[in-house]
Amino acid sequence: MFVFVKRAALFSCALLITPSLAAADCLDSEPLQGLDYQYEQALRVGDREFLQQLLLPYFVWVHNHAVAHESKADLLARLGPDYQPLKSRESSEVEVIRALDTAVIHGLSTVDKFTDGPRHANSYRFMRTYVLRDGRCRLLAGQTMKVWSTESEP
Fold first, then answer.
1. What is the dihedral of CA 78, 81, 86, 90, to 10 degrees?
2. How many domains does the chain have?
3. CA–CA dist 71, 39 (Å, integer)
């Protein structure tokens, strides 16, 4: 009986020390890839309401070779009433790295725009950092680097 009580006490202490572990399922690979897909689609169609909830107030997105960066306010403004939705935005080669209440997701994102002429698409290497805050996964930061464009094809 003493061994059971001792183990139960140790388990309870472990839960008190790491309360986020029980609630951190959203940072596991499969759920996080699903959430990140929702993020990609929100960017594609300009879903500002979803992004308002997902992005932390101090979110930053560093673009291609750091030539530009956007805050949460900048991104939401760019996706305003004049925003033209994209034809598609799809991820591949996606991997997740996790440490406690933080996860990094990285891979390749291909963005296809609607055009009246030839196809216009870009592929980017991306890396985004999600954190667990108040029981929810939130996007802290992202970085993209263009690796291919239809404009660079011969």
1. 60
2. 1
3. 15
Q: With contact defined as beta carbons under 8 Å apart, do 14 and 22 qualify? A: no
CATH of the domain at 147: 3.10.450.50
Cβ-contact 98, 131 below 8 angstroms:
no
pLDDT of 91 higher than 70: yes
Residue 113: exposure state from Cβ atoms within 10 A (0-12, 13-18, ≥19):
middle
pLDDT in tens, 22-60: 444 999 999 999 999 999 999 999 999 999 999 999 999
Q: What are phi and psi of 115, to 5 degrees?
A: -140, 160
Q: Which of 125, 122, 123 minimizes the C-alpha distance to 107?
A: 125
pTM beyond cutoff 0.70: yes
CB 140 within 8 Å of CB 129 = yes
